[in-house]
Amino acid sequence: MTEKNSEQLIQESLDSLRIDTKKNIKIDRENYEFELDYLPGKFKLNLKKITPQNRAVKLGYNLDVVPEHYDLIIELDSENDRFRGIVTIDLYFKSESDKFMINAEELCISQVLFENELIKSIDSSRNGNLDITLCEPFKKERAKLQIYFDAEISKSNFGFYLSTYGKNKKIYSTYFDAENARMAFPCFDHPIMKATFEITIIADKKFDVISNMPVESEHMFEDSNEQKILESGNGVFVDYHNSVNKKVVKFRKLKKTSTYLVAYAIGQFNRISEGIISVYSLYDAKLGEYALKIAVYVLDFFVEYFNMPFPLEKLDLIGIPRVESAVMQNWGMITFRHDALMYDRETYHMTKKISISDLVSRGIAHQWFGNLVTTTRWDDSWLYSGFAAWAAPLACDALKKSQESNHTTEISSTQIENSSDWQNKNLIDWEPWLRFISTHTEKYMRADANNILDPLEDPFQAFKKKRYTLTPSHISKSAALLRMFENFLTPSVFQERISQFVQDFALSNATIDEFFTVLFDNNEKNIQLAYSWIFKKGFPSVEQVGSKLVQSQIYLNYDLKNEMYWPTPVQIRILDPSKTDEENVHLIQLNCKTELSQLFKDPVDEKCIFLNDGGVGCFRTRYKSPSKVHDIFENLSTVNRLVLINDQSALSVNCVPCTKLMLKLCDKLQNEQSYEVLNIGKGFLLEIENIFWGQNEFIFEIVRNMVKHRLNFDFIKEEPFEIMHLRSSLLYLAVNHGIEVSIPENCHNMYRASYYIIDFQKHGDIRKYLKIYKKSKSNVKYDILLAMTKTQDFDVYKKVVDLFLSDEIKEKHKAILVKNALNHLKFKKYFINYFVDNFTELRKKIGDTNHFKKIFRYVTRTLEDIRGFKEKMLKHEHKIYKNTLRKGIKVSKGRLRFRKDYLADMAAIQPCDK
Question: ∠ at Cα 252 (249, 256), nearest 5°?
Fold first, then answer.
């Protein structure tokens, strides 16, 4: 089959949209401009790619007038939660111009000076923009633009905004991604309009002030030059407020950067440091020690990986009470949600280490790939975010290997006396790449197969009702594809090309095309391979059918459709123990189908082929029985066991024979030592239980065989994380399947959820557990909500359900309570009836929020009496939830249909049937 170029792939996307029109139309997209000529029965596509510069012009920017440098002064009024400022922008005129646009949103502009002359012609009618007109075309190359402004501190999580914590304590910080710098100061708020920055912040003396660069100087504000400049704004800012107790903090010059990467924070912090890295906490500085240790190693790792020094003079990691995303990769000043950065061994699960190491590593990877080199348009952010998601486990895996080789970098922080909780302990005691497969590769494929994920590049988004939004699944897909490309090129070549890309485009911007041109060394065939994955939704299944490898499309509930093909790199392992890895492992490119005899020099037993060795590919694998792969499941490597059980679990949806095979694999988990592998089996068994409700004794038998001989361990002693994670999963299965186990109250917090379940089942003390819920951290709250829904006392269960209409559970946690309540096989019918009977009241209580939509989705996907539920819903106004109801009922019907087929073939799926 011939390769399809990007225009053919785009045409396929267009054909799939089935546009109903009888006239020629012209569409202007973020990165594409094209005409569609309607011909009888078809469309003709004329595609023209728009450069980032042309796109910026279409947004209103005059690219003949660009910023070179910003001198920004901001004064905070913490008493009234306002700020004022002046920004002086050094402009470069490429040609004579008398008009240009600058961005300013929710700012009160008092005056604008151009070359010290007041500008009177300013049009602010376009929301978020200032259109400036000069008296005559400016004929010199360089000029200064000064803008005086003030505003209220933002009440959202964007711009320059306020967070509170503790007893009336305040912290002021910025979040400028993607186009929100304009809410804090007038600027050219587009990623290609890079410039240098000098930032000066005036704030109360009691506050610490942090920005992208180290502090250059600090002095009192009263009678300072900064005070005179601010109060020279034509009288507007005079007597802004008392300046006696304020200080001026001036920071060193920041290298050329995009406005969304500028940042500053004002508050009272505690700091822990090592070298150029600091972690800032609102509470005990030692809470940031784990993040600091990870950051020190990871920074050194990326310096070596990119073959380039860290671009700035310092790197701060700052915990903020409210941040729009868990991490914001500002250059030299990465901000995190406070709880996402801090780790307390006494109160947090050990799983917190995974998220901290991942977020810290992502933020640091962005410092080169995303900050030093920046996107040209926001729709390309999937690449930069995906790279960071891929690079995080790369760094963590290197740290793990370093630990195992006894070369772990030890940190002797001057801030910690006789440290420390982490001294001489492994920072990474899990398998990062196994985790990557579970959290990224699997995540994206399950979303993509169910037709809920747009392509990474979608020129035809203009035809669709919804705007392109970057979702976590897009980031996961990008990360998984980059890993596949790395394996395709080999890790050493991939690293060399990434380093070249970062050096070639340092301090500037790069398009997707420019990235792939460097990555594949201008090899058009390989570039088109990448585009085949980027421009399409869905992914293939690679199936070994006798002596052939066959590719099919997996799409929408895993039905197989022979409509599209991908040029797919497939890593194959021959299961021949007599040969070396090098002899057994082969990388091929599969376009449609091929004979195995064409792939290998020597004859190969077709029953001894393992597809997607190492889990580096983005496709499902299937094997025609009989296959040695399933028979030797326990003897496969851990990563290949994970690949096989992931694929088998996914393919079991609506497929009785696949489910039979998956149950056999679950029965082979009795001695499984990997949490990631066991967790897939656990999730599958719990899902099957929910489908079968009361007819699932065969599931109980598998669970009992899996856990009964593995519960004799110390519940208090701390072990390596991977061991404790596995044990906590086994313990949860035991507790939820009536297997008696005694857990002490002072158990390790990894086992706390199971202890709470047993204790609540025994005592049913709702008041006690609500008290624990109110005073606990988020992860403990989740354990409490889980435990309360696991009661075996129906009267207690009903009282727990009544909490949905109370104020004792936070609205954002009620979806968690619903999900857990629906997993109670004995009482779930009661909850569904409760929900539909009280729908209007619950909706009024929680509001039409994403939380309530999530609750409604959970309920409608687990229905047994669909007709009865629909009839009851007719009594309630639910128009805005009709689409959610329709999709949920579709899922429920599929589950019921599967259950019917399953029961009809019960003899085929008993675990003893081998």
Answer: 130
Cα separation values, 901 from 659, 694, 887, 905, Å:
11, 16, 21, 6
For 642, the domain range is 539-647
Measured N-to-C along each axis, helices 472-489 and 491-504 cross at an angle, to the nearest 10 degrees, of: 120
Residues 6+ apart with CB under 8 A from 236: 110, 111, 148, 150
Hey, which residues does 25 pair with through a beta bridge? 36
- On whether residue 353 sits in a domain, the answer given is no
Clarify whether residues 593 and 701 are in a common domain: no
Provide the 3-class DSSP secondary structure of residue 743.
Answer: coil
| Block residue for tokens 């304020």 | 246
CB of 403 closer than 8 Å to CB of 385: no
Residues 98 and 225 in one domain: yes
Q: What is the structure's pLDDT at 595?
A: 85
Q: Compute the average pLDDT of residues 825-842.
A: 92
For 617-657, list the strands marked E by DSSP.
620-623
Q: Are 420 and 291 in contact (CB under 8 A)?
A: no
Q: Which of 173-177, 395-399, 625-629, 808-812 has the lowest mean pLDDT?
A: 625-629
- Greatest mean pLDDT among 619-628, 742-751, 895-904 lies in 742-751
C-alpha radius of gyration, the chain, whole number: 30
525 & 392 share domain: yes
Token code pair at residue 563: 């409509």
**Same domain as 222, residue 101:** yes
Instruction: Flag whether 366 is marked binding.
Output: yes
Neighbours of 711 (CB within 10 A): 18
Q: How far apart are CA 433 and CA 397, in angstroms?
A: 7
Count Cβ atoms within 10 A of the Cβ of residue 747 and give its class: 0-12 exposed, 13-18 middle, 19 or more buried: middle
Say whether pLDDT at 654 is over 90: no
Domain-ending residue, one of 534, 557, 586: 534
Which CATH number covers residue 879? 1.25.50.20
Q: Two tokens at 83?
A: 């700020």
Which residue, 167, 189, 381, is CA-closest to 268? 167
The Cα 899–Cα 687 span in angstroms is 12
User: How many domains is the chain built from?
Assistant: 5
**418-442: pLDDT as tens digits:** 345 555 468 999 999 999 999 999 9
User: DSSP character for 468?
Assistant: P
- Asked if residue 724 belongs to a domain, the reply is yes
User: What pLDDT band is residue 84 in, cutting at 50, 70 and 90?
Assistant: very high
Both tokens assigned to 769: 């557990």
The residue whose two tokens read 């059980």 is 645
pLDDT at 462 over 60: no
